[in-house]
Give the backbone structure.
Amino acid sequence: MQTEITDFLVIGAGLAGLAFAGDAAASGASVRLLDKGRGVGGRTATRRFGDLRVDHGAQYFTARGQRLQSLASAGLSAGWLAVWCRGLPLYKEGAIQSRPEGHPRYAPPSGMNALPKQLAQGLEVALSATVTEITRDPAGSGWVVRCADGQTFTGHRLVLNLPPTQLLSLAADLLPTGTRTGIQNVTYAPAWTLMARLSKDVPGANWPALEFEGHPVLGLLSRDHTKRGGADAPPVLVANGSGEWSRAHLEDDPASVQTALLAAAQSVTGPLAVEEAQVHRWRYAQPTQLFEAPFFWDSTTGIGGCGDWCDTGSPLHGGKVEAALESGWRLAAEAIR
Ligand SMILES: Cc1cc2nc3c(=O)[nH]c(=O)nc-3n(C[C@H](O)[C@H](O)[C@H](O)COP(=O)(O)OP(=O)(O)OC[C@H]3O[C@@H](n4cnc5c(N)ncnc54)[C@H](O)[C@@H]3O)c2cc1C
């Protein structure tokens, strides 16, 4: 099915694609987003776990830039956002080390995917739309995108909000050489994530989450329920394997990963009363080597890219929610001129 030509087609409705699309639409351009997922938000993800919600991607975000601070203030006033904590203790050498209060860590009580849902309001998004092929429009005026189900979409300009490996597999030949080389140099760490529903909260814990340094298995432990209504919320623990451990076990079967992450978590917390558990594998969780610019944009052909793998200039953003948003906003400022 051929649909009408839009000004911008955006592949990927992660935070960067949504940030771009919001500004492009506000400028009067017609914009359509395509995403293979069943919802928007990509790695800023919340899963239903029985009657509970669990954040199994990003746990929280910080807002250091002015624009995200304004968005966060508006979210606090509107009630869809809350300050979860102001810093996380570190688990190191077998002990929990508290750290001074810092920047607010924001998390929506209804789940992290409330953030992309807010950004998607009013935008045209096609979900369950896995893009399999991108070609130049034979008429020479833009781009044709084909999805796995046979649908095609046409746009004058194209924005790619995909992790680099997926971006290159779809569009390597369509990029200027320097851009392609820059993207080929980006690297990512994977993450295995465990979600465990508990019948009793972690004994004696008063932390919302723990970060780990140098741990052989863990990168983070989160008492996810502490974002959702305090002491009465049914307890859920989220455990992320470290990048190194997750890479070493990337192709392991989920059951053995679950056992290993649960054992590692209990070596920190003591015995846990687990009612139900699941694991999720993020093949591209967080970038370890960034693209050297905040986005790319080729005005000759009208193709661009944005995402958390782009260097937005702040070491504090790198590979995080804030980097993804900044990258999308900055690409929009360039591409809609
Ligand atoms: C386990 C984990 C924990 C994290 N913790 C934090 C945290 O606490 N704080 C923080 O700030 N950040 C955290 N992050 C990072 C944060 O989630 C990301 O930086 C941010 O969500 C990236 O957004 P993005 O738009 O760049 O990419 P993505 O969210 O990856 O968006 C890309 C989109 O492209 C879509 N897509 C891919 N291929 C196709 C295709 N062929 N066709 C159509 N659509 C396609 C995907 O479905 C996805 O929606 C974490 C990430 C993970 C995985």
Remarks:
- The mean pLDDT is 95.
